[in-house]
């Protein structure tokens, strides 16, 4: 389809504004640009058709099954969008007197307290704008904690080899060095290797639990002991909280700092890549370092307070407020039991999908998975030449979003399925049937699968060309 | 209680049977029993109607003003109907990052169009798909510019306080020094700048217009930065860029800013969207997603996430930034705004801002306030006055008007946009005039 620039015609207008009813003021010519920026000029009908066409070439949770592992693509309730659009939330200025925005502060406080309860933490900041931003913030808290104790040797953050790529990247941004630890044969943290690397230079260990393999880290108590005995702190990457919320809390597992993803676990939409929101919770020893400002409830109402020992600000104003409104509406609707039920059904759905395909799509044997599981297609690839990616692309032809591919890095030809709790049995049964057929197809007609997808918006794109000869903007021919 | 599950009890039973367990609890057997939680201490779940009532009641505890004379980083602009309507399509809202290009061409093309519009607005060569907000965009630019031997970030005390705070946070653990120079008459001063610049300066950062609303002589600042071997980074208001010289025309290496004024509501400070654009030379250091054009195996035009070797999911600890989720949906809204307005509409909005701001400034002067700075301004300006700022703002509040932002006991930062009318401003000025 055309780019909006290609349907642009000079002189066309879409939205229009009122002509100012005051004398026109002019800016000194020396500051003015030579030419108006080249922006699209379209009529309203052109505009509406263009964006409708783009939306029809997008695939969201409302379009179909979206088992993108680690991303928790659960349904995004419609009421959340409606409440976030209420004028009392959208048309308030961030620098209004706090007396005039008590509702907004109450949203923030109620959400923070709910998240503290869900994670077993003592204090929560909502400010970080995304999961990775939360990791960065959490690591700054850890740095501030050690610095306040004059424990300046702690320069290293330990990261398992199964961790999300953001973990090491965030730790480097926060000024730490990275120590990678391998997984053991059961895909948990290798305790021997961990013991060998901890020491008086250990600032923290970053861990996801359940791990990125969708398995609960059974040795969590032992890991916690090893890290804490060495004087380090335990950081919880909340990407997989959906598996355990209401069942077990990171705080009770021994974690000191956690970040959450409201755009995963708490049903706020991903919007094609964001906005997310990455609240950070911590134990009381670290609370004094949380970003400024924090909301405090007093007898006279809510107010903002600034702590002297805070790490400072990590984002403008108070973060992605509109996302908080949606997440709070979700927590209000679910309540204590609904939150637990969400985790339970996420795990139920993942296990149901797993047991129905694991004879063909091999995964960790002899254990139940949590909210997601990772299969290895190495054997199929050896036999047929069909790779994990080609299975993913064939799923596209059948109208399903593929699972996460080639992650975690420790599994060869990995596909990571996370169906989430909002899928129903009928959908899962259809997907199971489709996956079983796809597997058979790999033997019958591997060449056809290697050029999949065949019925998508486009065929396989040339990514090498895109990176070698970057065309990253429209240029008029 | 509401839940968003869609499995009946009978189906749950069938699924458990198939898995070979008696209860859902059995699936959680790997979790040590003594660690498990008895029950969350949260209220019981609510019906949809009750949830709506609770949330609506919260929204009503916030005061919505008819007339808004406050900016300082969050701006009240008219949002076109077609932007609100088309951006609410759930395919846009409920999609993930477009990892699977074959089923995400709509999202990818929308980002490519956004990147193109940001390039055209700033004059730069390359834009990313967005970062969190304007302050974070400035911080990411700082990290792009700092090198082993150049680790001083130079700026003035006329940038937005929030931006400075975020810059300080990001600099602290990376051994970067943030040098803040005093502005002279509200604007960035070349002579003071030249004294500060040396071979450890990584870049110079200014905002256009600056926090006080004043238009900076950006070209001169850029020249001074480059003469010292430092990069030049401009933080811009995108509405102002419809009229003002583009960062490229001013010699910037990196242009950043917050695109909130482009169709996003004030929403108590977020979600907004940070834009980032740079020269081709800096491209491979740019953080965040970038969409590129390519072809599929049949030669058809196709869009993909590209230059991913910069990013955390490939490079892990060697990545230039940790950013993963960005503000893609807000970037979509901003690009819709630019398409709906077009170059003429954007210029009309910008001109209306300038005209109303100058009319407001004249009115306030007639009411006894003085403009603190005499320089050219866009849609914000600072007044000083013997009357206490608090009294002025309180009187306006009583009249349903959100006054300017108090900067000190007697100074106020005002803002005017196209949402105002002559009558609104006249009314506000009368209120100020009557303050004793």
Report the total helices of chain B: 13
Class from secondary-structure proportions of chain B? alpha/beta
| Run of helices and strands of chain A | HHHHEHEHEHEHEHEEHEEHEHHEEHHH
Arrangement of strands in the largest sheet of chain A: 1-7-6-5-4-2-3
Level of helix content of chain A? 25-40%
Number of strands of chain B: 15
Regarding CATH, which class of the largest domain in chain A?
A: Alpha Beta
Residue share in helices of chain B?
Answer: 25-40%
Question: Which of globular, elongated, flat, extended, rod-shaped describes the shape of chain B?
Answer: globular
- What is the level-2 CATH architecture name of the largest domain in chain B? 3-Layer(aba) Sandwich
Average pLDDT figure of chain B:
96
Fourth-level CATH superfamily of the largest domain in chain B: Type I PLP-dependent aspartate aminotransferase-like (Major domain)
Oligomeric state of the chains in view:
heterodimer
């Amino acid at each position: 389809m055309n780019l909006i620039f290609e349907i642009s015609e000079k002189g066309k207008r879409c939205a229009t504004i009122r002509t100012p009813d005051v004398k026109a003021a002019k800016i000194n010519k020396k500051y003015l640009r030579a030419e108006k920026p080249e922006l699209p000029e379209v009529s309203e009908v052109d505009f509406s058709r263009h964006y409708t066409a783009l939306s029809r070439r997008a695939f969201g949770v409302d379009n179909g099954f979206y088992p993108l592992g680690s991303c928790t693509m659960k349904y995004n309730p419609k009421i959340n969008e409606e409440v976030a659009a209420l004028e009392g939330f959208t048309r308030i200025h961030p620098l209004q007197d706090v007396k005039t925005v008590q509702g907004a502060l109450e949203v923030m406080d109620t959400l923070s307290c709910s998240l503290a309860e869900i994670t077993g933490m003592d204090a929560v900041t909502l400010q970080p704008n995304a999961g990775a931003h939360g990791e960065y913030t959490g690591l700054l808290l850890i740095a501030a904690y050690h610095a306040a104790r004059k424990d300046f040797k702690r320069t290293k953050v330990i990261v398992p080899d199964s961790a999300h790529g953001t973990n090491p990247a965030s730790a480097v941004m926060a000024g730490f060095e990275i120590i990678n630890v391998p997984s053991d044969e059961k895909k948990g943290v290798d305790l021997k290797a961990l013991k060998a690397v901890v020491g008086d230079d250990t600032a923290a260990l970053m861990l996801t639990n359940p791990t990125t393999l969708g398995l609960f880290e059974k040795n969590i108590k032992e890991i916690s002991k090893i890290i804490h005995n060495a004087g380090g702190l335990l950081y919880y990457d909340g990407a997989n909280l959906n598996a355990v919320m209401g069942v077990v809390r990171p705080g009770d597992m021994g974690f000191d700092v956690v970040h959450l993803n409201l755009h995963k676990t708490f049903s706020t939409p991903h919007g094609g890549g964001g906005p997310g929101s990455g609240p950070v919770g911590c134990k009381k020893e670290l609370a004094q370092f949380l970003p400024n400002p924090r909301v405090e409830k007093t007898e006279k109402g809510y107010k903002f307070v600034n702590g002297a020992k805070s790490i400072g600000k990590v984002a403008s104003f108070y973060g992605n407020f509109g996302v908080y409104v949606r997440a709070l509406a979700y927590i209000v609707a679910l309540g204590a039991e609904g939150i637990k039920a969400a985790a339970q059904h996420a795990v139920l759905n993942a296990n149901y999908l797993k047991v129905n395909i694991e004879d063909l799509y091999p995964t960790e044997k002899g254990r139940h998975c949590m909210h997601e599981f990772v299969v290895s297609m190495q054997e199929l690839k050896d036999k047929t030449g069909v790779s994990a990616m080609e299975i993913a692309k064939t799923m596209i032809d059948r109208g399903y979003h593929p699972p996460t591919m080639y992650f975690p890095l420790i599994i060869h030809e990995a596909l990571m399925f996370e169906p989430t709790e909002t899928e129903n049995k009928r959908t899962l049964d259809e997907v199971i049937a489709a996956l079983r057929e796809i597997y058979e197809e790999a033997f019958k007609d591997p060449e056809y699968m290697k050029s999949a997808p065949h019925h998508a918006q486009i065929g396989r794109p040339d990514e090498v060309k895109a990176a070698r000869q970057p065309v990253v903007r429209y240029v008029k021919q | 209680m509401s839940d968003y599950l869609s499995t009946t009890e009978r189906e749950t039973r069938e699924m458990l049977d198939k898995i070979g367990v008696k209860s859902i609890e059995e699936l959680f057997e790997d979790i040590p029993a003594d660690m498990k939680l008895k029950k969350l201490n949260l209220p019981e779940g609510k019906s949809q109607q009750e949830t709506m009532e609770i949330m609506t009641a919260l929204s009503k505890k916030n005061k919505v003003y008819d007339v808004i004379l406050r900016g300082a980083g969050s701006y009240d602009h008219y949002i076109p109907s077609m932007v609100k309507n088309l951006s609410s399509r759930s395919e846009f809202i409920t999609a993930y990052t477009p990892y699977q290009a074959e089923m995400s061409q709509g999202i990818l093309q929308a980002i490519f169009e956004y990147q193109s519009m940001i390039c055209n607005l700033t004059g730069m060569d390359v834009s990313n798909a967005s970062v969190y907000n304007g302050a974070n965009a400035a911080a990411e630019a700082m990290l792009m510019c700092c090198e082993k031997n150049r680790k001083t970030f130079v700026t003035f005390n006329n940038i937005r306080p929030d931006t400075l705070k975020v810059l300080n946070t990001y600099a602290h653990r990376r051994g970067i020094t943030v040098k803040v120079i005093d502005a002279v008459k509200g604007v960035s001063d070349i002579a003071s700048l030249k004294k500060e610049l040396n071979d450890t300066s990584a870049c110079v950062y200014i905002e256009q217009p600056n926090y006080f609303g004043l238009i900076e002589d950006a070209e001169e600042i850029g020249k001074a930065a480059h003469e010292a071997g430092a990069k030049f980074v401009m933080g811009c208001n995108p509405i102002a860029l419809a009229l003002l010289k583009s960062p490229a025309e001013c010699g910037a290496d990196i242009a950043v800013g917050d695109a909130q004024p482009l169709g996003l509501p004030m929403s108590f400070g977020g979600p907004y969207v940070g834009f980032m654009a740079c020269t081709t030379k800096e491209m491979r250091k740019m953080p965040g997603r970038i969409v590129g054009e390519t072809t599929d195996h049949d030669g058809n035009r196709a869009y993909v996430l590209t230059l991913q070797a910069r990013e955390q999911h490939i490079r892990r600890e060697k990545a230039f930034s940790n950013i993963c989720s960005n503000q893609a949906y807000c970037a979509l809204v901003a690009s819709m705004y630019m398409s709906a307005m077009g170059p003429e509409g954007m210029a009309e909005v910008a001109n209306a801002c300038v005209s109303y701001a100058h009319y407001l400034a004249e009115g306030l002067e007639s009411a006894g306030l003085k403009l603190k700075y005499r320089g050219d301004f866009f849609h914000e300006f600072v007044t000083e006055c013997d009357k206490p700022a608090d009294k002025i703002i309180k009187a306006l509040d009583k009249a349903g008007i959100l006054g300017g932002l108090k900067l000190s006991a007697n100074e106020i930062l005002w803002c005017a946009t196209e949402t105002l009318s002559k009558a609104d401003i006249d009314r506000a000025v009368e209120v100020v005039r009557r303050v004793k």
